[in-house]
Write a structure and sequence with these properties.
single chain; CTDL_fold; three-stranded antiparallel β-sheet; C-type_lectin-like/link_sf; vWFA_dom_sf; disordered N terminus; signal; about 280 residues; binds 2-acetamido-2-deoxy-beta-D-glucopyranose
Length: about 280
């Protein structure tokens, strides 16, 4: 359910940032004009990278989600000149900012910090800042270097993307918009049929079956927000079906599960069936 929440959050941030971006585009028009680098709309070129920032103080999760929502990452640092470059970036913002998030997070406490952009941790910082990571912490860039903070300590989000990468999206091979989404794509227009197969053999066990049922129910909402909704009146809608599988399949929901429906009480372990035979 937390994954779903993140997806939902991205959309919200994307919309809020869009308004911000239009504003920033105007502010930065003069900087953009002097640089040959062509950046996606919403990003401005500086020092060979295409950059984007929100000039707001947000926690780590919001900062990296905001970057992901525009198809970019918060910066990662790989040598002293990278560090100097990104410290310099504080002043490029309009107005200048005093701190922003890097994309490092603590994956293995005590180990090196991990870069979300999947580049290796090949530089540990002038004082070894990027090793000996403490759980729940990441790094801000300050004028005097790298400063460790808990994820909930607010700082600006600054994002950049690899300008050497193809402008077209590698997955759909289509043009992408300012958020890195396929041009003309509207998230409301996406609809999928999801069929979930629940193992109801003895190998699953009653507790795991109960938990799996709760997980499936959580796809629809957490009681506050709706996630996957089968709204048959919408122009496009997602349908979710659930099949219980032991020695024979049982259709629990025939692509008609809604947020009021439960798996608990409908799915039960079939006694005597030790496991499902995936080959058959
Ligand atoms: C520093 O790392 C960046 C990649 O992050 C690379 O492009 C640059 O050439 C490196 N600079 C030096 C001096 O090694
Ligand atoms: C941390 O990074 C340094 C530099 O890349 C490397 O030499 C070291 O082995 C890494 N340590 C761990 C625990 O991964
Ligand atoms: C949903 O599908 C199941 C399985 O086919 C069926 O038993 C149930 O009546 C359907 N529910 C509705 C609301 O149509």
């Amino acid at each position: 359910s937390s994954r779903m929440k993140i997806a939902l959050l991205l959309v919200t941030i994307g919309a809020a940032w869009y308004a911000n971006l239009l504003q920033m585009d105007t502010n930065r028009a003069n900087i953009a004009d002097t640089d040959q680098l062509q950046c996606r709309n919403g990003f401005y070129p500086y020092g060979g990278v295409c950059m984007y920032s929100n000039n707001e103080n947000v926690n780590y999760g919001v900062a990296v989600s905001a970057c992901a929502a525009v198809g970019a990452y918060a910066p990662s640092i790989h040598n002293q000149s990278d560090l100097d470059f990104w410290i310099g970036a504080l002043k490029w913002q309009n107005p200048p900012i005093s701190h922003y998030w890097l994309d490092a997070y603590c994956e293995t406490p005590g180990g090196n910090y991990t870069w979300r952009d999947a580049l290796p941790t090949d530089y540990l910082g002038p004082k070894g800042e990027l090793t000996g990571c403490a759980p729940g912490t990441g790094y801000h860039i300050h004028a005097d270097g790298l400063k460790r903070f808990f994820y909930d300590t607010p700082a600006s989000a600054v994002c950049s993307y690899d300008t050497k990468a193809d402008r077209a999206d590698p997955y759909c091979n289509c043009a992408v918009d300012k958020f890195g989404f396929p041009s003309g794509w509207n998230y409301n227009d996406i609809w999928v049929d999801v069929a979930i197969i629940l193992d109801t053999s003895e190998a699953m066990g009653t507790t795991a079956c109960f938990l799996a049922g709760a997980l499936i129910e959580s796809f629809f909402g957490d009681g506050f927000d709706d996630f996957l909704i089968t709204d048959t009146n919408a122009p496009f809608y997602t349908r979710v079906g659930v099949i219980g599988m032991s020695d024979t399949p049982t259709v629990l929901y025939n692509l008609n599960m809604t947020k009021n429906d439960k798996v608990h009480g409908k799915a039960s372990i079939k006694k005597g069936v030790l496991g499902i035979d995936v080959v058959a």
